[in-house]
Amino acid sequence: MTSLSRELVFLILQFLDEEKFKESVHKLEQESGFFFNMKYFEEKALAGEWDEIERYLSGFTKVDDNRYSMKIFFEIRKQKYLEALDRHDRAKAVDILVKDLKVFSTFNEELYKEITQLLTLENFRENEQLSKYGDTKSARSIMLIELKKLIEANPLFREKLIFPTLKASRLRTLINQSLNWQHQLCKNPRSNPDIKTLFIDHTCSPPNGSRTPQSATVPLSAVPKPAPYMALGTHGTFPPAVAANANALAGWMANAAASSSVQSAAVAASPITVPQNQGLNHMSKNKNIYGDYQNSDPDQLMKRLRPIAHPVDESVWSSDDLPKTVACTVSQGANVTSMDFHPSHHTLLLVGSGNGEIVLWEIGLRERLVSKPFKIWDAAARSIAFQATLVKDSSISINKVAWSPDGSLIGIAFTKHLIHLYSYHAPNDLRNLLEIDAHVGGVNDIAFSHPNKQICIVTCGDDKLIKVWDLNGRKLFAFEGHEAPVYSVCPHHKDNIQFIFSTALDGKIKAWLYDNMGSRVDYDAPGRWCTTMLTIILMWNQQDGECFLVEWNESEGSIKRTYSGFRKKSNGVLQFDITQNHFLAVGEDNQIKFWDVDNVNMITSTDADGGLPNLPRLRFNKEGTLLAVSTADNGFKILANAEGLRTLRPLDNRSFEALKAQVDRLDGSSPARPSPLLLAEILEPSQCRVVSTTDSGSKVTRLLYTNSATGLLALGSNGVQRLWKWTRNEQNRVARHGHIAPEHWQPSSGLLMTNDVSDNDSYVMSACGGKVSLFNMMTFKVIRYDDVHAPPPASTFLAFHPQDNNIIAVKTKLKGHQKRITGLAFSNHLNILVSSGADAQLCIWSTDTWEKRKSISIQMTAGKSPGGDTRVQFHSDQVRLLVVHETQLAVYDASKAERLRQWLPQDSLPAPISSASYSCNSQLVYASFCNGDIGVFDADSLRPRCRIAPSAYLSPAVANSSQSVYPLVVATNPQEHNQLAVGLTDGAVKVIEPSESEKNWGAPVPNDNGAAGGRTPAPTVTTSP
């Protein structure tokens, strides 16, 4: 809606209020969402008219918009619930609980449970937190104070709480002015005109003879007030809210150079005197004074907008200029979904993956500089809708990665709601800068722009919106107008005029200025489906699979040329890129096809030595000398021309020793050996922070955190499970609990949970013998009890499927091991289940058919028999697999069933390994040893960073006792990567963090060439001969 139309709504609101149409006033306030009437809201809240309050609020916000909105609705529904309890209307209270309050359970399950328990009390004031609840009237007043604070703080209500200052009867005044103007244009104006309707323009009926026009003021009070009040669009003052046609582009661009506000267009309140015979000419010249952009000639603008065309002399270039030579092949470890080269460092490549991870590669050195697995930075600030989406399906992928024009920022668009913004500091430092819950559904594209010399982020999504954000996360603009999900955005500028092109899945192309005036252009791409735009080049995919690549004539809204060389049908969206307005590259048919932008015929194509997917992703560097292309085996290839190959020469010029070290790194067959100089020693309690629980006398055999990191669940060797919880408060709401002792939690019934455990915060799935039990964690009561085998073998391990918590894997219907199962791990990315057993075997099973794909024997050192428990855990990339045995730590590539790394107990950590686990960000591995030591390893290289001695976390009495006490199991905090918990042989549990001064466990492991702060690259790079 244009700003003038918005102002018209305010004029109508004033008119309705003056005419005492109270219900209509509030209905229009709610439907338009332009003005929130706090006085009306207060009246309804104090009167307890809850349904009307929520109806009115629905015009401005929804429950899941943000945390303020969620809190507003929660307070209202909580008060409604408490009043029902106070009236002892249990049926109504249950109805409110189920229909109104249930939505908040996904955000805070514990709070919902506490609210539910109020039903069991005769008087809810018996609850300590509600003991000061007074009568209904005072409670509503207190609630209203809180609601007003939340509404004023909610950004969705910004600029909606104050009604604009208007003169009385402003709408009547404007109509009066319009009628006066119309009267001045009458060919035969009367001194006392008879105005009977507003439905048509006023004209004075001609008398017997012609009369000289006279000035006349027609008071609106003389006009009979019609019952239905019609819109004023026919008078031309407020342009209708329809999409502009293809000839509209010039006007909106010309208007953009001046102020977007309509100045000098308002008609003065005094009578207008028009000289004789000039009235019609005056109107003709100014008929679009409120909306010139709709009908202006586009030719002048397009001369300004269109990039200057430089004719290309074919003698200057040849097909050798195309990057077609395969320079290297790199394994990303996950499906590559997006790539972008740094704008100035032409060998620095940013890669986004299907598992949500980003990796920064230095292609010249074939090094993985830094990787960032997907992680929600601030879960509490995310919307209810996003959290509910993750509950249904926790997988998340990357739609787009993008560098800012100066290369200092990185933007990431995810398939669910979020964008992440990082700041980049060379050579390998990425710092979290901003996390925004940007769109409902997927964020399909992200780009950077510079309106008003201020860098901004432009996003689009499945919710049909385009949004512009500043670097503080504040939403500057939200462009509405598309009727289908917006697929791509293309910020552009010409002659200091900044604008945005957007394309949607229905083929619509729109253009927007950085204002709130709506789209200025509305084109239809032929085929009307998925469209991608890069400056003047468009590609779209029709629903029947036919693809087109065209150069777009913006001035005419038509196709200038269509590039040939595509197959008839494609089963997905093609990717393309353009370099220096010279070459086009498109991924199709397992190959890369090239065009010159001024020639419709394909120049050449290449399959890049094979291994490309049907529709490969691709990206040029800025110079066009390198081309990154995704591969079918979760990696990418770098194609280069002659200049690009010279850019990559630094690898060839490295010293023999450096190359030998790299070859050693690529050879994962030999165990990694640590350098004693790199190993930090934690020997005293003062060097770390430790929290202890009381021992139970029964060995801790399993240990895990709850998903919210607010609880620890331990299983003893006697089959009894114990639960500890940290109390939530403002100081302790994050996952850092290393200095706060958890409380042992047990229901008043005294019931105990027994058997094995899983990691759902509300329920616990456990297994023992041939039976599997489901426990309620609030009551410890058994909800369900199923026989898995009759008669047993006993169930020895249990794991949840990562996509469906209703699927669990329990030993042993899948036959493949000779001895008992000791570990299970699912990979959502590879669709496999890996099992490990006491036979030192790994079995890989397809989760689609549950057939065994492969069996791997763990390589034992000489003299060791293949026995003992083996545990497995997937890295966050869902490809690398950590294998833990008492004799070794090993990392495997599960997609190839190959071992990448191995570490054997040695030097400062010589004892057998009892347990190990990845940190939550998969950057570290924590391992416990049978002599009480705890080792912290770099996850990529399996090199030790730190040793935590038993003297640092055990009391002197326990450490010096005759009984050997050591960790049997390690658990890692799901939100804080530097925190771990260990379960000991004496039944105690220890939570351990680095000291406040250190903050980290040892220093990062340098890479083999001695570069400080680097990370040893995984053996994933191969170089073409």
From TrEMBL:
Keywords for the protein's UniProt record, in alphabetical order: Repeat, WD repeat
Domain CTLH, residue spans: 34-92
Keyword Translocase: no
Gene Ontology biological process terms from the UniProt entry: regulation of DNA-templated transcription
InterPro entries, alphabetized: CTLH_C, LisH, Topless_fam, Topless_Znf, TPL_SMU1_LisH-like, TPR1-like_2nd, WD40/YVTN_repeat-like_dom_sf, WD40_repeat_CS
Keyword Repeat: yes
Pfam families noted in UniProt: LisH_TPL (PF17814), TPR1-like_2nd (PF21889), WD40 (PF00400), zf_topless (PF21359)
Residue spans of the WD repeats: 329-371, 436-472, 574-605, 814-855
Region entry Disordered, spans: 994-1025
Protein's name in the database: CTLH domain-containing protein
Species per Swiss-Prot/TrEMBL record: Spirodela intermedia
Lineage start: Eukaryota, Viridiplantae, Streptophyta, Embryophyta, Tracheophyta
